[in-house]
Amino acid sequence: MPEETPSLDALRAEIDRIDDEIHDLIVHRATIAAKVRAAKTGGGGGDIFLRPGRETIVLRRLLARHAGAFPRRVLVRLWRELFSAIVSMQGRFSLAVWMPERGAGYIELARNQYGTFTPLSAHQSVGQVVREVAEGRATVGVLPLPRAEDATAWWLHLTSDLPGTPRVVARLPVVETGGLEALAIACLDPEPSGGADRALLCIESGPDASRAAVLDGLREAGFDPVGLMDVRTLESGPRLSLVEVAGFVAPGDERLALATSGPISRLVVIGVHAEPFSARDLDGAP
């Protein structure tokens, strides 16, 4: 006997049951998040509950177990909204976004990463975005990728060793698109994402040190430089280079001390971010 095809009403009833189960699990997840908040507050973790590394670990795990026709890109977007809602439930959460002109695209990047309904302020000055985060008026700042041709190098504001200095915590979008990109900053210590990470190092050297000498010094210390993003020479004399290196680098990494010889006099980790998910990760492309 051929298997009987369920009626449309029966299929809709099954969908309703599944929707109720999903909703119940979201409510339960929110309850667990409240307990996490209590545990973090009791441990003295401050009032910023954003965990960029942990979020990427979760997304990598879900993508690894995913099956079926449901689009992986949509799966990532759903969980990004869920992460943002839970963070906003745990404590203060707001965004400061660089918007030099209408339609620049950075607000859309911020919304895709940090939630459709997260409070957001737009600023025409990159320096103001950094100040909003540093002074606690915003939890996360969204800024353009540093470029040598930019009039203002906002990343110079992140070179202090003082506690509470904003750090780069994410590269946007989390899904590769080949379009506009940005960096997100927050007053958080870097944390690994359980996979491919990139660290941003501010390197101080003499004004006569060549770029090749600086990169060679990093390699000799055990770093794997993948890009020189910007170079600025200060009026006081030193040259500051922003270099992206492969892998996670903690502020106390022993390689930082090893590198401070030859042309390099000082290194500061100004942030770490996970590599965006590639087309292969999301679409199974070769």
Task: Offer a concise description of the structure.
The chain is of the alpha+beta class and 286 residues long. Helix content is 37%, strand content 21%.
Order of helices and strands: HHHEHEHEEEEHEEHEH
- The CATH topology annotation of the largest domain reads as Chorismate Mutase Domain, subunit A
Shape: elongated
Helical content (DSSP H or I, runs of 4+) = 25-40%
How much is the average pLDDT? 91
Total number of strands: 9
CATH H level, superfamily name of the largest domain: Chorismate mutase
User: From the alpha-carbon coordinates, what is the Rg to the nearest angstrom?
Assistant: 22 Å
Low-confidence blocks of residues? none
CATH architecture of the largest domain: Up-down Bundle
How many structural domains does the protein architecture include? 2
Our count of helices gives 8
CATH class of the largest domain: Mainly Alpha
Structural class: alpha+beta
Question: Which labels suit this protein?
Answer:
four-stranded antiparallel sheet; 37% helix; five-stranded mixed sheet; Alpha-Beta Plaits; elongated; EC 5.4.99.5; chorismate mutase; 9 strands; chorismate mutase activity; 286 residues; Chorismate_II_sf; single chain; Chorismate Mutase Domain, subunit A; CM_dom_sf; alpha+beta
Describe the structure.
The structure is a single chain. The chain is an alpha+beta fold. The protein has two domains: 9-189, Chorismate Mutase Domain, subunit A; 197-273, Ribosomal protein S6/Translation elongation factor EF1B (Alpha-Beta Plaits, 2-Layer Sandwich). It is 37% helix and 21% strand. It has helices at 8-42, 52-65, 72-90, 106-114, 126-134, 211-220, 254-259, 279-283, and strands at residues 95-98, 120-123, 140-144, 167-172, 182-186, 197-205, 225-233, 239-246, 264-274. It has a five-stranded mixed sheet, with helices on both faces. A four-stranded antiparallel sheet has the order 7-8-6-9. A hairpin with a 5-residue loop joins strand 7 and strand 8 (239-246). Helix 1 (8-42) crosses helix 3 (72-90).
